[in-house]
Amino acid sequence: MAGKTILILGGGVGGIVTANALRRQLDPEHRVVVIDKRGEYVFTPSLLWVMVGWRQPAQITKDLSRLLHSGVEVRRAEVQEIDPERSVVRAGGEELAYDYLVVALGADLAPEAMPGFAEVAHTPFDLPGATALWSALQGFEGGRVAVLVAATPYKCPAAPYETALLLDDHFRRRGMRDRVEMAVYTPEPAPMGVAGPVMGQAVVGMLQAKGIAFNPQLNLTHIDPAQKTLAFGNREPASFDFLAGVPPHKSPRVVRDSPLANPAGWVAVDKRTLATPFENVYAIGDVTTIPLANGKPLPKAGVFAHGEGETVAARIAEAVQGAAPRNEFDGMGYCWIEMGGGSAGFASGDFYAEPDPEVPHPRAGRLWHTGKVLYEKWWMGEGLARTAAGLGLRLGSKLLGIPASL
Ligand SMILES: Cc1cc2nc3c(=O)[nH]c(=O)nc-3n(C[C@H](O)[C@H](O)[C@H](O)COP(=O)(O)OP(=O)(O)OC[C@H]3O[C@@H](n4cnc5c(N)ncnc54)[C@H](O)[C@@H]3O)c2cc1C
Prior knowledge:
Strand 22 and strand 23 form a beta hairpin. This protein is α/β, with parallel strands linked by helices. The chain has helices spanning 13-25, 47-51, 117-120, 127-138, 159-173, 197-209, 253-256, 302-320, 366-380, 383-400, and strands spanning 5-9, 31-36, 40-42, 61-63, 72-76, 79-83, 88-91, 94-97, 100-103, 108-109, 143-149, 180-185, 212-215, 220-224, 229-232, 238-239, 242-246, 249-250, 267-268, 281-283, 288-289, 332-340, 343-350, 363-365. It folds into 3 domains: 5-107 and 251-320, FAD/NAD(P)-binding domain; 112-248, FAD/NAD(P)-binding domain (3-Layer(bba) Sandwich); 332-400, no CATH class. Flavin-adenine dinucleotide binds at residues 10-15, 35-38, 44-45, 47-48, 78-79, 104-106, 124-125, 155-156, 159, 252, 254, 285-287, 300-303, 305, 335-336.
């Protein structure tokens, strides 16, 4: 059997998991190649801790090659063209042929798509934004704080709500909460709506308990940086003194320009196999769109990119070894919600359940915050620290009966 080349586009959550799983399962004669334009990985859940000064950027950033198993090739290059009809990709000006392709290019932030956003909004959704937000908080002495979701879809449905709860925590620690009025504005009917009404009500309850107003179903038309107002198509404007927000998202240009994209720019895949209509081409993670039984899309979240990556790696390994691919993605997911005060909520469930995802009421407390810290150490740590964090997570998930893939 001649050696095969598996190209993985994107070295984020999905790309890393897929590459490492393939390297474990395939003989060394087969090449596993990851192409990423940044060459370094940022642990996104901790961006929210950078935003409130609990982490320094260096603590949540790591060279990509240090997260990949030995034997995985890494190329730092921009993917410029994907041609699934010819089974080639152009990256860094070079044409590369593949036997199997995994597209894991994520979702890009597009602040320019909402007039006024780039001028006046702070965003914790990337490292420069989270760092700048932390700096801007130092000069804020009180007033109206708006936490905004500019448009859907966006990654991590919990993140805007965690942003509000962590900012609340920050203002309390600084002894200035009584000088701050806080409100969330979103086009969504409820927080984390895909997970169902129980989850939505639980998160609204968390906001209310902290005196944070929740304003759903808003059609934001633009932001006025001079007046410091949010303009909506379906209600009167809201004014703010400090704006923290989720910018609009779009799929990466190279994907939008490829035959893989649907009219909205995302890649439609089979929800169980992650296969695209093109032979030996898979797509995983934020770049995909997967409609659920209730008509809503599977959320863009690292936990799904992770599970999908494991499925795709197993399917490719099975095919390379001459077997019919059998592994399927089950739609199981979990999520932490940072609540401030050293506490977090945690929920897990079956997002492929019909007619609606089955996600029970989140459990909450200090233990869950500790679980999130362990999760960070497991992803980012090395040697003994990583092993210890992994053991802690495994033991905790067994005792509490939550997904073992943690
Ligand atoms: C503030 C915040 C908090 C979050 N918290 C959580 C959480 O608690 N739990 C959770 O499950 N998810 C969370 N997420 C979401 C999670 O980060 C994403 O869903 C996850 O990273 C998606 O993985 P991916 O592999 O699809 O894409 P990504 O991890 O975004 O990786 C895509 C990679 O592709 C590369 N790339 C893009 N275009 C090109 C190109 N043209 N050429 C070369 N390389 C390219 C990028 O450099 C990047 O490394 C959070 C996100 C944010 C912003």
